[in-house]
Design a protein that fits this description.
heterodimer; A: 396 residues; alpha/beta; D-Maltodextrin-Binding Protein, domain 2; 2 domains; three-stranded parallel β-sheet; 14 helices; 36% helix; 14% strand; B: 292 residues; mainly alpha; MetI-like fold; two-stranded antiparallel ribbon; 2 strands; flat
C-alpha cells in the first residue's frame, strides 16, 4: 500500500516567516555592529571624590525643586516629612531598595546617577570611599549635626573631617523569635541544634549573614577574617541551614513567617520586626546572643554626581531634626542618633531600646561590623568571597 | 537595476526597522555581555585584558551546578505541566466550546497582566501552616496538625511557577490549534482514524511547533526565575538566576555575572534542543509542516 503523505507541499512562497526573521536578524546585526564595538571598551573604575573643605553651603545653590532618593521604604520620612517638604518647596521622588547592593548598582549605572540622596550602611562606608561614590558633606552644613551623638558621626567621618555619610538611624540584627513557642536564645549555636529542625528562617543577605556567622564562631572583627576563618563560618552556617525551613527574601518576611507560625526563630533578625509584627497583631521578640549581634547604622549620602545637592543636604539635615528622629523611633522601631529626642519615642517603639543604657548595649551586645574589603589583601576574605560562601551555603 | 534586484532591495528596506530593533534590543546587549564575559572584572570596574578565568571559575563552582540542576528540573517540570494544562484547555475550547475562546484568551491575558508578587503571596496564604488548605483539612478532621510539607518545598515552587506561566502556554497552544481546520480532523476520521489516531496523525503534528514554543517559553522563564524560590521554596531551592543576579548586584563583578549568565543560557538552550529533537523523533515536528 503506498504511503499517504497527509502534508502536501505548500505552494512556494517568496518570503516565509522563517526567512523573514532570518533576514531581519541579518539587517539588525549589520545595523548594530558599530554600537556594539563602541560599547565594548571602557573601564569604569571608581575615583575618589574631591574634598569639599573649601565649599560653602551656599555654593551648592538654593533649596527647592525635586530630589531623587534611593532608600528603604520608610527611610524617606513617610508622612512625617511632608510638612517640611511643603515648607521647603521640595518634591521628593523615592526609588525603594531591597538592600545596599541595589544602591551601589544604581549609583554605578548611568540611570542611578540622577539620585540626589541615597542610603548607605556604615558597614560599606569604606567601600564607597574607594569607589568615590559619595560627595563629602561638611558637618557645619547640617544645623542638627551638633546634636547627633559623636559616637555615630565618628563612624563616617573621613580623614579631612568631612562626613562620607550622615548617620540618622541604627538598629540591631538580633535573633527574632516567637515568645509563645520558645525562650530567648542565649547563643547563636542554639539555632544549629537539631531540636529546632524546620523551625528556623535564615535571611538572604550575604553580608549580615556572614557577619553574624563570624560572631557566632568567635570572630569579633568579621571584616578582617581570613579565608580559612570564612570556611569555619560556612561550616557553621551549613549547620544552621540544616534547621532552616526557608531562606527568606527580606526582614519583613521574617515577621510574617513568625506571626504565621511557620517558623519560630530567625538567623538573623531585625529589632524593627517587633513593630511590623505588632501591626499584624503578632508578638515577636528580639534576643541578643552572648557572642554578639550585628549592629547597623544607616546613613544618607549625597552622590557625587547629584544635581540637587543643596536640597539633598537640607533633607538629610531634616532627618536629624527632633520630629524626624521621633518618627524613626515610633514608626520604624529603630534607634535614634539624637539621644535628646529619645523622650519623644512612645509605646512599643520606646520598648525596643533602653536609651538610658545604650553604653551597655553598644559595649556588650552590638558589634557594628564592617563589610569585607572589596580588593584582595593577603589572605583576608573579600566581599566577593563572602557572597560566594553564602551561595555555597544555600546550595548545600 | 533589474526588477528582481529592486524587489529584493525593497524587501530589505522594509525589514530594516525590525532588524534594527532586534539588533538594538537583543543582539547588542547579548554581544556586549558575551564580550564582557571574557574580561577581568570586580566592583571597581572592568579590565581591558581578555581572560578565560571567569568560565574556569564557573565550571569549578559546584554550588552553581547544583543550582543549574535545580533550575532545569523545576523549569522542565513547570513547562511540562503548563503545556499539558494548556493543551487540554485549548483543545476543549477549540473543538468543543469554541464560543469560550475569547473568554479563555481574556482570562489568560488577565492572569499574565495580574500582579506577580500578589499571586506568589496568595500561594503562601494557601499553603502556610495556618493557611487555607491546612485549616480546611484540620476543620474537616482529615489531619490533626498542619502538613508542613506544603509550603517551602519543591512542590510549592513548581505549583507557583505553573500558576504564573501556564497562561502563556495556553495562549500559544490555542493559537496553534486555531490554525487547524475542522475538515482536516474530519478527513482523518472519515478515513477510519479513531480520536486518538486523529490526534496523533493530524492535530499533534500541526501544533508541534506551538508545543515546542510553549514549552520553551515556560521553561526559559521559569528556569530563570529567582524570585519565587526564596518566597515559597525551602532552603534547597536556589536556582541559577541567583548566581547571575548576585554577580551584578552583590559583588558588582559584571564579567563574572555575564559568564554565569551565558553558561546558564547554553545549558537551557541545550535542554530546548533536546526537546526539539524528541518532538522530531516522535513525529510532532514533521519537516513537511514547517512552512505552514
Amino acid at each position: 500500500m503506498p504511503s499517504h503523505n497527509p502534508f502536501p507541499p505548500l505552494r512556494p512562497q517568496e518570503l516565509t516567516r522563517a526567512a523573514f526573521l532570518r533576514r531581519a536578524a541579518a539587517v539588525g546585526l549589520s545595523a548594530s555592529a558599530l554600537p556594539l564595538l563602541a560599547a565594548c571598551g571602557g573601564d569604569d573604575a571608581g575615583k575618589a571624590a574631591e574634598p569639599t573643605g573649601d565649599v560653602k553651603l551656599e555654593d551648592l545653590g538654593a533649596v527647592g525643586g525635586a530630589i531623587q532618593i534611593l532608600t528603604y521604604a520608610g527611610y524617606e520620612g513617610g508622612d512625617a516629612i511632608k510638612p517640611w517638604l511643603k515648607q521647603a518647596g521640595v518634591a521628593q521622588k523615592v526609588t525603594p531598595i531591597n538592600n545596599q547592593d541595589d544602591v551601589t548598582t544604581k549609583l554605578r549605572s548611568p540611570a542611578g546617577r540622577t539620585a540626589d540622596a541615597a542610603q548607605l550602611g556604615v558597614a560599606q562606608v569604606e567601600q564607597y570611599r574607594q569607589l568615590g561614590l559619595a560627595y563629602p558633606i561638611q558637618p557645619e552644613w547640617l544645623s542638627n549635626s551638633a546634636k547627633v551623638d559623636k559616637y555615630f558621626l565618628d563612624l563616617t567621618m573621613d580623614a579631612n573631617g568631612a562626613l562620607t555619610a550622615v548617620p540618622f538611624v541604627w538598629g540591631s540584627l538580633g535573633c527574632n523569635y516567637d515568645p509563645k513557642r520558645m525562650g530567648a536564645i542565649e547563643s547563636w549555636q542554639e539555632l544549629a541544634d537539631p531540636k529546632l529542625k524546620g523551625r528556623v528562617a535564615m535571611i538572604d543577605d550575604p553580608v549580615s549573614t556572614v557577619q553574624t556567622g563570624a560572631l557566632a564562631v568567635g570572630i569579633r572583627e568579621p571584616s578582617k577574617m581570613t579565608r580559612d576563618q570564612l570556611e569555619q563560618v560556612k561550616e557553621f552556617l551549613v549547620k544552621v541551614k540544616a534547621n532552616a525551613r526557608t531562606v527568606a527574601a527580606g526582614y519583613a518576611d521574617i515577621g510574617d513567617l513568625i506571626v504565621a507560625g511557620d517558623v519560630w526563630a530567625s538567623f538573623q533578625g531585625w529589632n524593627a520586626v517587633e513593630i511590623f509584627a505588632a501591626a499584624k497583631d503578632g508578638v515577636v521578640k528580639t534576643a541578643y546572643p552572648k557572642e554578639g549581634t550585628v549592629g547597623f547604622v544607616d546613613c544618607y549620602i549625597v552622590p557625587k554626581d547629584a544635581d540637587n545637592k543643596r536640597s539633598a543636604v537640607a533633607f538629610i539635615d531634616q532627618m536629624l531634626s527632633t520630629e524626624m528622629q521621633a518618627y524613626v523611633g515610633n514608626e520604624l522601631g529603630s534607634g535614634l542618633v539624637r539621644l535628646d529626642a529619645a523622650s519623644e519615642v512612645k509605646g512599643l517603639g520606646a520598648q525596643v531600646f533602653d536609651y538610658d543604657n545604650l553604653k551597655e548595649l553598644f559595649e556588650t551586645k552590638l558589634v557594628f561590623a564592617l563589610d569585607a574589603p572589596i580588593e584582595s589583601s593577603g589572605d583576608i576574605a573579600t566581599h566577593e568571597d563572602w557572597v560566594a560562601a553564602w551561595e555555597d551555603v544555600k546550595a548545600t | 537595476m533589474t526588477q528582481a534586484l529592486r524587489t529584493r532591495l525593497g524587501g530589505w528596506a522594509l525589514l530594516a526597522p525590525l532588524g534594527a530593533l532586534l539588533g538594538l534590543l537583543l543582539v547588542v546587549p547579548l554581544g556586549i555581555g558575551l564580550w564582557y564575559s571574557f574580561r577581568e572584572g570586580s566592583i571597581l570596574g572592568i579590565g581591558s585584558s581578555l581572560t578565560l578565568d571567569n568560565y574556569r571559575d564557573v565550571l569549578g563552582r559546584d554550588s552553581f551546578w547544583v543550582a543549574v540542576r535545580t533550575s532545569v528540573l523545576y523549569g522542565a517540570a513547570t513547562a511540562l505541566t503548563a503545556v499539558l494544562f494548556g493543551f487540554f484547555i485549548a483543545r476543549y475550547v477549540r473543538f468543543e466550546r469554541p464560543r469560550y475562546a475569547r473568554l479563555i484568551v481574556g482570562a489568560a491575558l488577565l492572569a499574565i497582566m495580574g500582579g506577580y508578587l500578589v499571586r506568589i503571596y496568595a500561594w503562601r496564604t494557601l499553603l502556610s501552616d495556618g493557611g487555607v488548605i491546612n485549616s480546611g483539612l484540620i476543620e474537616a478532621g482529615v489531619i490533626d496538625s498542619p502538613l508542613r510539607s506544603l509550603l517551602f518545598s519543591p512542590g510549592a515552587v513548581i505549583a507557583t511557577l505553573v500558576s504564573i506561566y501556564a497562561p502563556y502556554a495556553t495562549l500559544v497552544i490555542l493559537s496553534g490549534l486555531d490554525n487547524i481546520g475542522d475538515d482536516e480532523v474530519e478527513a482523518a476520521r472519515d478515513l477510519g482514524a479513531g480520536p486518538v489516531r486523529a490526534y496523533k496523525l493530524v492535530v499533534l503534528p500541526l501544533i508541534g511547533r506551538s508545543v515546542l514554543l510553549a514549552f520553551s517559553l515556560v521553561f526559559l522563564l521559569s528556569a530563570a526565575d529567582y524570585v519565587i524560590p526564596p518566597l515559597v521554596g525551602g532552603p534547597r531551592t536556589q536556582m541559577a538566576g541567583v548566581f547571575v543576579a548576585n554577580q551584578f548586584l552583590a559583588t558588582g563583578d559584571t564579567p563574572m555575572g555575564a559568564a554565569f549568565g551565558f553558561t546558564t543560557l547554553l545549558v537551557l538552550a541545550f535542554v530546548v534542543t533536546l526537546v526539539w529533537a524528541a518532538l522530531r523523533v516522535v513525529g510532532m515536528l514533521p519537516k513537511e509542516a514547517v512552512r505552514r
